[in-house]
Each structure stands twice: as structure tokens, then as C-alpha cells.
Write a structure and sequence with these properties.
The protein contains six helices and no strands. It is mainly α.
């Protein structure tokens, strides 16, 4: 997956996240982001990775997001791996 494709998927996930008033509040409280910061950060691959990290914390969120956005359920994880900070760490 290219970084551009991963960013597109992350943006779709962000749209879904923003459609849920309760969940976007949790995300903003966790990250400390303001409404203005959200608008400014949509071009930042690191921020988009944090959106995916947040959604990937709960399988129910992944399923709901993918269903709402018409995505395969494996795409958020694959997109996260293609964005900065998403590489698998090999500890051996």
C-alpha cells in the first residue's frame, strides 16, 4: 500500500470518527487536539496515523468505521503500517 492510499483511508476513518460526537470528543480529549487543529492536521501523515491508532484500539470501532465507509476490515491496519510510525518492530 502506498502512503497516499493510506492517507486516503485514514481520511475516510477521520470522517467517520468526526460523525460520532461522543467518540470524537474522546479522541480530542486523548490527543488534546482542538477543532482547529483537526482541520489543520488532515494533511499531516503523523496525525493521520494517530487517527488510525485510535480507531484500531477497539475492534467494534474498526468494524463500525469500515462498514460506514465501505472499507475492508483489514484496510485500517494496513494503512497504519504504511504511514510514519506504523512499521512493525522486530525485537529479535
Amino acid at each position: 500500500m502506498t502512503q497516499e492510499s493510506a492517507e486516503t483511508i485514514a481520511l475516510k476513518c477521520l470522517v467517520w470518527l468526526m460523525s460520532d460526537d461522543e467518540l470524537i470528543g474522546v479522541f480530542m480529549g486523548t490527543t488534546g487536539a482542538s477543532q482547529e487543529a483537526l482541520r489543520d492536521a488532515v494533511q499531516d501523515p503523523d496525525f493521520l496515523g494517530s487517527v488510525l491508532d485510535f480507531i484500531l484500539m477497539d475492534d467494534a470501532w474498526v468494524l463500525a468505521c469500515c462498514e460506514a465507509q465501505g472499507l475492508s476490515t483489514d484496510l485500517p491496519m494496513r494503512a497504519r503500517a504504511a504511514l510514519p510510525g506504523g512499521e512493525q518492530v522486530n525485537w529479535t
